[in-house]
Amino acid sequence: MINRRNFLTTVAIGTASAAALAACGSPAPSQTGSAENPVTINYTWWGNDDRAERTRKAIALFEEKNKDIKVNGNFTDFAGYWQKRATEAAGGGLPDVMQWDLSYMRDYGQRNQLLDLGTVKINTDAFDKSLLPSGQIRGKTYGIPTSTNAFAVYYDPAKLASLGIAEPDGTWTYKEYNDFLTEVGAKGNGALFGGTDYTGVWWMFNIWLRQNNTEAFTEDGKLGFTKDHLKKWWNQTAALRGTPAIVSEERVTQLAPKSPFGSNVSVTEVTWDNFMAAYLGDSGAKELKLVPVPSDDKDNLGLFLKPSMLMVASAKTKYKDAAARFIDFMVNDPEVGQIFKTSRGVPASKTQRDGTTFEGTDKLVVDYEKSIEKYLKDAPEPPIVGFGTLEASFKRISSDLNYGKLTIDGAADAWFKEAEDLIKQNA
Amino acid sequence: MTQSPTLSRRSTSPSAPAPRKSKRSGADARAGYTFLLPWLLGFIALTVGPMISSLYLSFTNYNLFDPPKWIGLDNYTTMFQDERFLQSVGVTVGYVVFGTPLKLAAALAVAMLLNSARKGQGFYRSAFYAPSLIGASVSIAIVWKAMFGDSGPVDQGLSFFGINLGGWVGNPSMTMSMFILLTVWQFGAPMVIFLAGLKQIPADLYEAASMDGAGPVRRSVNITWPMLSPVIFFNLLMETIHAFQIFASAYIISNGEGGPAGSTLFYTLYLYLRGFSDFRMGYASAMAWLLVIVVGIITLIFFKTSKSWVHYSGDSK
């Protein structure tokens, strides 16, 4: 039978240890190889299976050419990627080489987590000089762009043909784009939708601001736009929410981490042009096309070339030389260009770009970037510290908007509150 | 657990002279602590140390990279103006209040069924226990997500009966039911404890009661319930604490975001996001400590109220 004293002690100890577990998470330190020859460096990236396969090939090629270095690769999806990096940074164990995003440049670069690549040998002669600053903070180079990407509207010509709708030519105002989405939704008959709510994408908002000659952030790291800008933006699709013009948020959530476009649920998607390979892979479509984003000012599309991703190294890597050689290889080698084509974006290094043959859909991406050349403006510098968080909350709050949990005013208030709090926190 | 059995053993031996006894018990204590040392060191370095440092961090603004800045109680006060925080409290409390009793009810019901002797009993016990062995795993959360997705087995099964709810995963008003079902399904651990408790109730109590003309209802109210009450109390306590700490399944099912529309933003998930997505480690530490305090208070309340309904053998009640 149950004796009171024993029982209470057991319960008390159980309770105490359960409570103790809640109070502390134990960071998992990652390991770096220590064999003398060959050395092993860890490389991590985000992406889907398609990118994983291409990266595997690139690593194999690198190892073949550099017998003294082994590369240990690892990948996750974009959202989980940054949480993992934070955990590793906390434990002092960031991987030696990492694929990086402009959004997180300042968070890690400014806080001395990344290697100053000026101290190692990486050839940047073949790079467009206007692009390199995107990997620099306060005069130090922390990241080398692998490639460039620009915003575009993707569409699936086969699906449009099946609905009997003419292909767009990409000269459209927001109203015309909205009308297009509405038409697709109406004819799609519940099986096909126009697109994902484009007002939920931070970068599209940023482009719209540029079309209205407003910068998203001021030079001293404050917000460059007002709440009214944001309300006006979220109002763009107010009439479309809840109609078949826009994929319902329920579906978007269900399909995550794949996009509705990649899952053959919608006919268009506004996003970066280097998603071509991923979309083709996800959807199984034969051909996808891309045209410029809508703008109410025909001469100002607000577009820019952004480094689609950068290569960085950990400040604490034991193998600076090996890391530098791997980065140099990934950004400059023409054979790497042949492997990735445009799946990372259009190669930033001229050596790599010229050494790559672009055919079919890859050629569409390269041609697209050429076609918008005259509208391009300077690439943005690394945004403010904590920008990645703001980008994520922008997406989350517009998702709440689509769920009808927030009004447009409430959504704008919520985002501004988080943004101001974050800027104050990091000041 | 650790009632120093050596002491009581020594004191029963009358032949040992008094001074020597204390010397030897001192040596025993030393030996005891030496054997405890590996565990003790681990406990101090891996549990107590981090807890103390997290207590300190909870009063600071700490972003992982820069040295922590002391800001007093700011983290604790701003929490209550943070709508996401309040949302996470709401979600978690809802889960605990509905999930825990349902899980315990299921566990008790199945334990009572399995308590009667019949063929294949061992098999049934293992079968019912299995979900709780694999339930906390990553794969189950993934399977669960697929099952409750659009056109998943659950959606199709319900459609067959004319109930068209669509996928649960993307519907903010259905996600909580999904998580409660997931926890109820993992009733194995409390079930085994209930079963052990039921086995301990002496059969002669039931026999005597039957002799006196007590029916099945009377027997369960007057015998089963009081005799089982310590076990019910234990399960209630452990499962409540456990429910407050739900994390892995929520993280996986919502892609680590707490969506849709914040409906799966459990307390620990928000804590994690605050710490590892937003680099607000001070804030996250404060949340952790608030959870420890609240769980502590709830445990205390359980213990206080338990006096009125938990019956221990040997008590006069």
Model description:
The complex is a heterodimer of chains A (427) and B (317). Chain A is α/β, with parallel strands linked by helices. Chain A folds into 2 domains: 39-149 and 306-366, Periplasmic binding protein-like II (D-Maltodextrin-Binding Protein, domain 2, 3-Layer(aba) Sandwich), CATH 3.40.190.10; 151-305 and 382-426, D-Maltodextrin-Binding Protein, domain 2. Chain A has helices at residues 4-23, 49-65, 78-90, 105-109, 157-163, 174-188, 202-211, 227-235, 249-255, 276-283, 320-332, 334-340, 350-354, 360-371, 387-402, 408-426; strands spanning 39-46, 69-76, 97-100, 136-137, 140-141, 144-149, 151-155, 193-195, 266-272, 289-291, 306-313, 346-347. In chain A, the strands form 3 sheets. Chain A has a 6-stranded mixed beta sheet with strand order 2-1-3-11-6-12. A 4-stranded mixed beta sheet of chain A has the order 8-9-7-10. In chain A, helix 2 runs antiparallel to helix 12 (334-340), helix 8 (227-235) crosses helix 16 (408-426) and helix 15 packs antiparallel against helix 16. With 317 residues, chain B is mostly helical. Chain B has 14 helices and 2 strands, in the order ααββαααααααααααα. The longest helix of chain B is centred in the N-terminal third of the chain and has 40 residues, at 18-57. Chains A and B meet through helix 1, helix 3, helix 9, helix 15 and helix 16 of A and helix 2, helix 11, helix 13 and helix 14 of B.
